Backbone:
């Protein structure tokens, strides 16, 4: 695996999100270094998903700025994030049940035919899209053959594999994953986490929300703990154990950040 | 380095392969029940009513279905995208009257009157979509407003005018069986190609299936929705032109309840009212089924009021069948 460097890819400063009078996220800083897997942990309602959505333009931020490769990035919509090279797998919002795997992977970035039909009428090039997906799946060892079938037909593990593959196909720099193993069985979780590991090999820096302390300890380089909308600690994974993390999450340990 | 398109990995899949034929088979499996129901209904009337057996009857079923089927193709697009347009019957009325005025009063060339009518219908449809996107008022309310407002507009435009006796060449569009049927099949084919082969069309399924996922995937939802309503308005206009041509007069009362017949045909065919699923082939079959029942019952001397009751029962049965099948899965 590629070792984490000290060069930041993504830096978020003072991210806040208010819903009316409710403060969902208060002045949170985040730094993601090149080639690392950064875990985001916290209790339900700690602001993990809100942080990710605010980072990727899925919801408007109340305040805060985002720097990408040292320069300020204007990420206001999901498309802005994608253009910057950030791919996100949102929890429960990764795939449309009613459309095929091919259409899901290329949703929003469909490949058009290279002739007048494509230019004039936006006719899709299914052959090319299918071929690219098959190449990608074989590279990542994702065993899904029926790419024409609706996403609904697949298991949770297969769906997550499709969503994670999408980040490899399109993510140039950063993959952000919201609980990639939620609702998966033990074996499927293992497969999903192997895929997360391979994201790193494909040159992506990863931010991953998780509830699974074992995944933090086994797969991540650093961990940030959110509590009640605040950043309560950032640690190198080699400096923590499961009990320490739980203490930080529950507030038994107040943290320091 | 991370881009898959640069990968030289062989295109091989580790498990059993599936191909496009399987997809067609799968689609046929979904639609065969509706086709079987249509054939069964036809057969029942064929047995019960001797005059129903003629080829002319078959032609008249297609002929009567054609105008509503064209309108219903637009309804199919809108429903698949998770939308609803109750105003297409009124768009039908306004466009009919407008084209009538173009021809009878201004004596515009036929092609210009037709294109003007189509553009007007598309614009009214787009307006429905734009109002929803901008105000966030639900489709049901916006297009219910459109239903009465466009109807009023049609009445204002038509008042004090005699809109009849159009040029012979214009009458050719909707008269007889060949032209209307040709337009119906061409419209269905193009709508089907639009939905399955183009970027905008295929996105209708994604938006109707899960608009939030589509938004997060970078699909421009608002713009796409306006296009779907625009196409619905365009096809309502085409249907209106066919009818004005066939009747050789235009009046604002035409098109009443057409939006409901169209929705009924779409639903009977098996397109989901909740978006994300469906197809124009199903709509065509749904429309033929409705017309077969109407024509068949007429031949058996059953009055229009009873026909309406029959159609109503069938709409509920069709949706019940769909719900029951989903639950069984």
Residues:
């Amino acid at each position: 695996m590629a070792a984490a460097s000290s060069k930041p890819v993504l830096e978020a400063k003072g991210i806040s999100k208010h819903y009316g009078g409710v403060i969902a996220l208060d002045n949170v800083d985040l730094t993601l270094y090149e080639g690392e897997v950064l875990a985001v942990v916290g209790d339900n309602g700690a602001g993990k998903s809100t942080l990710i959505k605010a980072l990727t333009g899925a919801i408007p931020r109340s305040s805060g700025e985002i720097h990408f490769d040292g320069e300020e990035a204007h990420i206001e919509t999901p498309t802005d994030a994608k253009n910057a090279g950030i791919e996100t797998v949102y929890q429960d919002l990764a795939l449309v049940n009613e459309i095929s795997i091919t259409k899901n992977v290329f949703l929003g970035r469909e490949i058009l035919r290279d002739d007048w039909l494509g230019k004039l009428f936006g006719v899709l090039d299914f052959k090319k899209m299918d071929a690219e997906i098959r190449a990608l799946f074989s590279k990542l060892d994702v065993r899904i053959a029926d790419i024409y079938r609706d996403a609904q037909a697949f298991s949770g593990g297969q769906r997550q594999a499709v969503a994670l593959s999408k980040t490899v196909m399109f993510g140039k720099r950063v993959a952000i994953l919201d609980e990639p193993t939620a609702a998966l069985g033990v074996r499927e979780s293992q497969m999903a986490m192997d895929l997360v590991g391979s994201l790193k090999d494909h040159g992506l820096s990863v931010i991953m929300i998780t509830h699974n302390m074992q995944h933090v300890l086994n797969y991540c380089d650093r961990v940030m703990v959110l509590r009640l909308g605040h950043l309560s600690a950032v640690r190198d994974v080699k400096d923590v154990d499961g009990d320490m993390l739980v203490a930080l999450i529950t507030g038994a340990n107040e943290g320091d950040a | 380095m991370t881009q898959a398109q640069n990968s030289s990995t062989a295109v091989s899949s580790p498990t059993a392969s599936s191909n496009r034929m399987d997809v067609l088979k799968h689609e046929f499996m979904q639609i065969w029940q509706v086709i079987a129901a249509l054939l069964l209904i036809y057969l029942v009337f064929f047995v019960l009513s001797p005059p129903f057996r003629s080829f002319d009857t078959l032609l008249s079923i297609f002929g009567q279905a054609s105008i509503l089927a064209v309108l219903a193709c637009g309804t199919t697009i809108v429903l698949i995208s998770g939308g609803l347009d109750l105003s297409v019957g009124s768009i039908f009325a306004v466009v009919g009257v407008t084209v009538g005025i173009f021809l009878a009063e201004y004596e515009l060339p036929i092609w210009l009157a037709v294109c003007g009518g189509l553009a007007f219908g598309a614009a009214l449809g787009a307006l429905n979509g734009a109002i929803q996107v901008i105000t966030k008022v639900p489709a049901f309310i916006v297009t219910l407003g459109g239903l009465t407002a466009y109807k009023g507009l049609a009445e204002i435009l038509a008042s004090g005018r005699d809109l009849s006796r159009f040029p012979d060449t214009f009458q050719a569009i909707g008269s007889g069986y060949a032209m209307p049927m040709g337009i119906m099949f061409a419209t269905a084919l193009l709508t089907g190609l639009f939905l399955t082969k183009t970027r905008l069309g295929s996105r209708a399924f994604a938006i109707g299936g899960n608009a939030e996922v589509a938004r997060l995937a970078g699909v421009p939802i608002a713009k796409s929705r306006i296009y779907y309503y625009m196409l619905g308005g365009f096809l309502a206009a085409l249907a209106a032109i066919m009818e004005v041509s066939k009747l050789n007069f235009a009046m604002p009362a035409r098109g009443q309840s057409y939006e409901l017949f169209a929705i009924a045909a779409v639903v009977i065919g098996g397109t989901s009212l909740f978006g994300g699923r469906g197809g124009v082939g199903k709509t065509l079959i749904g429309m033929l089924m409705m017309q077969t029942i109407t024509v068949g019952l007429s031949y058996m001397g059953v009055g229009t009021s009873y026909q309406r009751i029959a159609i109503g029962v069938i709409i509920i049965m069709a949706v019940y069948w769909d719900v029951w099948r989903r639950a069984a899965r």
Notes: Chain A has a mean pLDDT of 90.
